[in-house]
Structure formats: structure tokens, C-alpha cells
């Protein structure tokens, strides 16, 4: 057992790296909080009114764009 100390340190380092990789946190909750508005026609989530306006102009050009106060 010439490398006893090195072997133990390598094992500890590998264990810490494995814990960091396995502990991936899901961003689904944070992402859903960021998408608060929904398109009134197709219910597509959007981050803000500006994105809703762009979406409505592109996907629903015949529909009138609701005012910002309606969201």
C-alpha cells in the first residue's frame, strides 16, 4: 500500500464529482414562473407583452391584438 493516501484522495475527489453531476436541478419550475402570459387564441405561453404582440402578428394576423391591460 504505497499509494494509500493518494488512492483515498482520488476516491474522495471522484465521489464529489459524481455528487455534483447527479444533483442536476430541474429548471421547469423557474421556467414556468417566467412564462406568465398566454396567447388568448392558442394559449401559447409568453414572457411578456412584447412577445405576445410579435406572436399575434406572426401567427394570428387576422385577430386584433388585445391591450396590455387585459393580461
UniProtKB/TrEMBL annotation:
Name by which UniProt lists this protein: Zinc finger protein
Compositional bias ranges of the Basic and acidic residues kind: 1-19
Single GO cellular component term: cytoplasm
UniProt KW Hydrolase keyword: no
Domain Small EDRK-rich factor-like N-terminal, first and last residues per copy: 1-33
Source taxon at top rank: Eukaryota
Pfam families: SERF-like_N
Region annotation (Disordered) ranges: 1-31
InterPro entries assigned to the protein according to its UniProt record, in alphabetical order: MBS1/2-like, SERF-like_N, ZNF706/At2g23090_sf
PANTHER family: GEO09665P1-RELATED (PTHR21213), ZINC FINGER PROTEIN 706 (PTHR21213:SF0)
UniProt keyword list: Cytoplasm, Nucleus
Subcellular location: Cytoplasm; Nucleus
Primary location: cytoplasm
